Amino acid sequence: MGNYNHINNTQEVRRVLIITLFLNIAVAAAKIAYGYVTNSISITSDGFHSMFDGTSNIFGLIGIWIAAHPPDKEHPYGHRKFETLFTIVIGIMILGTSFRILEKVYFSFKGEYSQAIVTPVSFAVMLVTMAVNIFVARYEAARGKVLKSDFLSADAMHTQSDILTTTSVIIGLLFVKLGYPAADSLAGLVIVVFIAKIGYEILRKSTDILVDRVCMNTSLIESLVIKIENVRGCHDIRTRGSESATYVDLHILVDPAMPVEKAHGIADRVEEMICKEFPNVVDVVVHVEPEKN
After folding, report:
1. Residue 233, Cα to own-chain centre: how many angstroms?
2. Domains and CATH numbers, the chain
3. Which residues contact 65 (CB under 8 A, 6 or more apart)?
4. Phi-psi group of 236: left, alpha or beta (phi > 0 → left; psi -120 to 50 → alpha; rest → beta)
5. What pLDDT digit, counting tens, does each position of 52-110 carry?
6. Among 150, 144, 152, 186, which Cα is nearest to 169's?
7. Per-residue CA distances from 282 to 34, 169, 242, 275 (Å)
8. How far is CA 127 from CA 27, 31, 173, 248, in A?
C-alpha cells in the first residue's frame, strides 16, 4: 500500500509540475519580451527570475522521475534524495539569478543602460503576470503539502519570490512614471534581496535533509512503542530523511528469557504500529535487546 501511495503521489507531483511549467514559461516570455522593448531592467530581471521558475519545473520533473525508482543493488535505500539534490539545484539557481540582477543594477547606475519607458501596458503586463504567479504559488504550496513533496514546497517558495519582486517592479515603475528614472534600478536592487533570501532558505532546508538532521519528535515514537505489549523499554531512537519519507531506527528491551521467534514478532509489531501511526515513515529498523536485571 505504501509503495502504491508513493507511485500515485509521484504521478500527481508530475502533473502539478507540468501545469506550472507552461504557466511559468508564458509569464517569463511576456516579462522578458516587454522588458527588452521598454529598456526596463526591473521588468527584464523579473522575467529572467520567472524563467528560472520554468527551468526549475524541468529539473523537478527529472528529479521526481529519478526519485521514484525503487531501491536496487547500488541504492538499497532508494533514490529519494535525488529530489533533495534537485531542490538544492533550485536554490543555487535562485542565488545565481540574484547575482545576475545585481550586475544589471550596477551597470545601470554607471549609466550604461537607457532609461526605461513606462506606459499603461507596462503595468498591465506586470499585474497579469503577478496574478498568474499568485495562482501558481498557492497551487504548488497546497499540492506540496497534500503530497508531502519537498520539491513542490520549495518551488512554491521560489514562485512566491516572483510575487514579491513583481510588486517591487510595479512600485519602481510608478516612481519612474513620476520622473525618478533611478527607481527602476532600485527596484532591481530590492529584487536581489528577496531572491537571495528565498534561495538561502531552500538551501538550508535541503541541507538539513542531506546531513540527516532529526526530522521527527522522537518522544512521540517512544510513547507509542512502550505501550506495545511485551516491550519493556525503548531507547536510542533516531530519525532521518524528509517530511515525505522518514527513516526510523530504535532499540527495544524485551524479557531476556523470551524466545527469539517471539521477540522477532514483537519487532514486527513495533514496525507495523509506527508505520500506521506515522504514514510518512517509509522504513523502520528495530534492534531487539534483552532487558538487564
Report:
1. 37
2. 2-210 (1.20.1510.10), 218-290 (3.30.70.1350)
3. 14
4. left
5. 667 767 766 776 677 677 777 887 777 777 777 877 887 887 788 778 778 777 777 76
6. 186
7. 48, 44, 10, 7
8. 11, 11, 12, 47
Closest CA to 101 of 58, 47, 153, 57: 47
What single DSSP character describes residue 148? T
Contact 213, 240 (CB under 8 A): yes
The Cα 30–Cα 147 span in angstroms is 31
For the full predicted model, state whether its pTM sits above 0.70.
no
Amino acid type, 45: S
Dig out the grid coordinates for 236 from the structure.
536510542
Radius of gyration of the chain measured on its C-alpha atoms: 25
Q: Output the nine-digit C-alpha cell for 231.
A: 516491550
